[in-house]
Design brief:
Strands 1-2 form a two-stranded antiparallel sheet. It is built from 5 helices and 2 strands. It has helices at 13-26, 39-46, 50-62, 81-105, 110-123; strands spanning 66-69, 73-76. A hairpin with a 3-residue loop joins strand 1 and strand 2. The two termini are 18 Å apart. It is mainly alpha-helical. Keywords: DNA-binding, Transcription, Transcription regulation.
């Protein structure tokens, strides 16, 4: 599992971890039933505290993205995959709404914004 966190980001470390795991679930890089690294292992790999990873996993479990089985570990949830996708799209739309507001403040036209979006979209392959 590829997780990269940044201390210089304004987003809390546990949120960075959570968001990246959600992204990997929605993009099907992590499949239903697939095990996640243990909290200790992931904390060691990305050099953060165990408490930080634990908080991320707890939120992911509460939101239905993962399931934790005592003595076995945490797994990508096989339940409600469409619901998870819809939730991820909603979160994406909220972020996009903020970007659109900022673009309007900067007097960026819809055409300019779409061109920027297309360029960034094509670069992410």
């Amino acid at each position: 599992m590829d997780i990269i966190v940044s201390d210089s980001s304004p987003v809390a470390l546990y949120e960075q971890i959570k968001n990246q795991i959600i992204s990997q679930i929605v993009s099907k890089k992590l499949l239903p039933g697939q095990p996640l690294p243990s909290i200790r292992t992931l904390a060691r790999e990305i050099k953060v505290s165990i408490i930080t990873v634990k908080k991320s996993y707890e939120i992911l479990e509460n939101e239905g993205y993962i399931e934790t089985v005592p003595s076995k570990g945490s797994f990508v949830s096989a339940k409600n995959t469409e619901k998870m996708r819809q939730l991820a799209i909603y979160e994406w739309e909220c972020k996009l709404e903020e970007i659109v507001k900022r673009a309007k403040e900067l007097d960026i036209s819809l055409d300019e914004g779409m061109e920027i979006f297309k360029e960034l979209y094509n670069l992410s392959d």
